[in-house]
């Protein structure tokens, strides 16, 4: 039954019976345990995955953003960062590309830090749409609820909730926050930004539709522009591995040792990634890889092993949902080779 969130005055369409109960009670014991194997084994697993999938020739580079269509499809890089800040990399790991949808994860975390668990789950939602990331029908089917922060409707809503009374102030907050996750100042790829800004009529339509449902308190076109900027932030696979490792490390960047968000915010963010990080193929991903992940249309994927570290992959050719083909295969290989799958256990007396 629809209720109204008194703080936001927005109808609450979250239907799950757990949704209104607030966060689970905190427990010091309730953390993922174990650690990564030694650096030699991690390096070996990355090298094996790289050689195994380097010549895989499946998938198509995104072309709905014109500048992404010009990328070299053979680029391939894998990078791990542990919660101790140790890194291992193979392939084109210093090549820079636009973060695209992976930004949604980190902007969600920053907003969750500001507004809290309950407000974001009510306002944005945390359930998978089962539909493409830029679906308009998903919004209609949910009476205007964006459903989750990792599809475009939910990401634009999340961006609208970023602190700041002007688009510039919101953008400054996002740029600074994502830079703290990466541990270095990030900047925009002007060409990708200009290219997407000239062709993002669909995202502007999504924002207008959200506004028509009373779901957006900010200007839809300005908010879409801030969202487009956040998607254009330029970084490398190595940067993404540090960002993923920050989510694995309870919100502390393991390289700079700077606290970016609270441990409970990391946990909430990883839960959302597990449900929807690879869009309508999130179930396949979880079944095969067993960890929260997030993909972007430029070809990046982050995979997070809570309490252990983060894996980032980059390879531009995508599957039909917009997830890197080689990245998914490599992540699955590495996850199993170094024992990262969250769902795996052994009988206690085996
Ligand atoms: N900027 C892209 C868009 O809005 C991001 C999509 C993605 O990476 N899946 O379409």
List the helices and strands and how they pair.
Layout: E1 3-5, E2 10-12, H1 39-53, E3 77-82, E4 87-91, E5 96-98, H2 102-115, H3 117-123, H4 137-141, H5 152-160, H6 167-182, E6 187-188, H7 190-197, H8 201-212, H9 220-231, E7 233-236, H10 237-248, H11 263-276, H12 282-289, E8 293-295, E9 300-305, E10 309-314, H13 325-337
Antiparallel strand pairs: 1-2, 3-4, 3-10, 5-7, 6-7, 8-9, 9-10
Bound molecules: glutamine.
Glutamine binds near residues 152, 196, 203, 297 and 322.
Summarize the structure.
The chain is α+β, with helices and mostly antiparallel strands. It has helices spanning 39-53, 102-115, 117-123, 137-141, 152-160, 167-182, 190-197, 201-212, 220-231, 237-248, 263-276, 282-289, 325-337, and strands spanning 3-5, 10-12, 77-82, 87-91, 96-98, 187-188, 233-236, 293-295, 300-305, 309-314.
């Amino acid at each position: 039954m629809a209720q109204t969130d008194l703080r936001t005055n927005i109808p609450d369409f979250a239907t799950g019976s757990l949704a209104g109960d607030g966060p689970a009670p905190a427990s010091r014991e309730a953390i993922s345990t174990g650690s990564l194997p030694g650096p030699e084994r991690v390096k070996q697993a990355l090298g094996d995955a790289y050689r195994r999938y380097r010549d895989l020739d499946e998938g198509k580079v995104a072309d709905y953003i014109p500048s992404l269509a010009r990328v070299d499809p053979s680029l391939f890089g894998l990078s791990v960062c542990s919660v101790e800040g140790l890194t291992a990399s193979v392939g084109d790991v210093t090549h820079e590309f636009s973060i695209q949808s992976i930004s949604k994860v980190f902007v969600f975390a920053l907003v969750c830090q500001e507004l809290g668990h309950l407000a974001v789950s009510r306002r944005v939602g945390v359930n998978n749409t089962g539909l493409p990331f830029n679906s308009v029908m998903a919004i209609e089917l949910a009476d205007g609820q964006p459903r989750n922060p990792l599809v475009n409707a939910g990401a634009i809503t999340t961006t609208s909730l970023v602190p700041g009374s002007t688009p510039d102030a919101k953008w400054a907050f996002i740029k600074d926050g994502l830079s703290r996750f990466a541990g270095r100042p990030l900047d925009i790829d002007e060409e990708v930004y200009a290219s997407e800004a000239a062709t993002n009529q669909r995202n502007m339509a999504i924002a207008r539709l959200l506004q028509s449902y009373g779901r957006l308190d900010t200007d839809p076109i300005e908010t879409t522009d801030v969202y487009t900027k956040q998607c254009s932030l330029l970084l490398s696979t190595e940067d993404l591995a540090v960002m993923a490792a920050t989510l694995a490390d309870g919100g502390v960047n393991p390289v700079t040792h700077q606290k970016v968000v609270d441990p409970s915010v990391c946990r909430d963010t990883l839960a959302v990634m597990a449900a929807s990080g690879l869009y309508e193929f999130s179930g396949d991903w979880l079944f095969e890889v067993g960890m929260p992940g997030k993909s972007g249309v430029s070809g990046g994927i982050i995979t997070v092993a809570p309490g252990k570290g983060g894996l980032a992959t980059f390879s531009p050719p995508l599957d039909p949902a917009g997830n890197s083909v080689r990245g998914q295969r490599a992540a699955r290989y590495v996850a199993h080779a170094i024992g990262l799958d969250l769902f795996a256990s052994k009988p206690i007396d085996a």
